[in-house]
Amino acid sequence: MRHDQDEPTEEIAVAPAGHEPLATPGSLRVLCVDDNFDAADSLGEMLAIAGHEVVVRHSGAAALMAVNAGFRPDVCVLDITMPGIDGCELAAALRATRDEDDLLLIAVTALGDYRSLERMADSGFDLQFTKPVSPRDLYEALNFRARQLATRAAASRH
């Protein structure tokens, strides 16, 4: 798992053994962004243990720097209410650089009112989970995305 430049860098390559909820059809590149360090780091650890390549950032600006430096996520799990570039602004910026079906954007937020949900949808989010996110729900979304990418790769080989 990779963190912000000013934090200690830690690479984790732990594969789950016999844990069905963690089993994934393929490893994904996941960008986790939350200004709450504990929330971002916990989520990043959980996804790394599930076998994904995870980059954790604690601001929208740091996330954009990671992407501009060459990290190309398959999935982005973004908090909405962050200072500076918030999750919706970040989602819109990320969506503008990729084809719509090339990136899964997931909002993880405490916001659930209609206006916030509408803003998330308008920003390009594919899914929204209310904090605290159920690990099972998140794994199901990632597994679905991994299967999509595997199917697309198999089709392009033929």
Tell me what the structure shows:
This protein is an alpha/beta fold and 158 residues long. The protein has one domain (25-157): Rossmann fold, CATH 3.40.50. It contains 5 helices and 5 strands, in the order βαβαβαβαβα. It has helices spanning 37-49, 60-68, 87-96, 114-123, 135-157, and strands at residues 29-33, 53-57, 75-78, 104-109, 127-130. A 5-stranded parallel beta sheet has the order 2-1-3-4-5, sandwiched between helices. Helix 1 (37-49) links the parallel strand 1 (29-33) and strand 2. The protein is globular and about 45 Å long. Mean pLDDT is 86; it is low at 6-23.
List keywords for this structure.
five-stranded parallel β-sheet, Rossmann fold, 158 residues, globular, alpha/beta
CATH superfamily: Response regulator
Taking the sheet with the most strands, its summary is: 5 strands, parallel
Query: How large is the count of helical segments?
Result: 5
How many β strands by DSSP?
Answer: 5
Low-pLDDT stretches: 6-23
Number of domains: 1
Q: Which strand order do you get reading across the main beta sheet?
A: 2-1-3-4-5
Assess the beta-strand content as a share of residues: 15-25%
CATH class: Alpha Beta
The separation of the N and C termini measures 34 Å
Overall mean pLDDT = 86
Label the overall shape.
globular
Along the chain, the helix and strand elements come as: EHEHEHEHEH
Q: Structural class, from helix and strand content? A: alpha/beta
In the CATH hierarchy, the architecture is: 3-Layer(aba) Sandwich
User: What is the fold named in CATH at topology level?
Assistant: Rossmann fold
Q: Give the proportion of residues in helices.
A: 40-55%
Report the radius of gyration as a whole number of Å. 15 Å
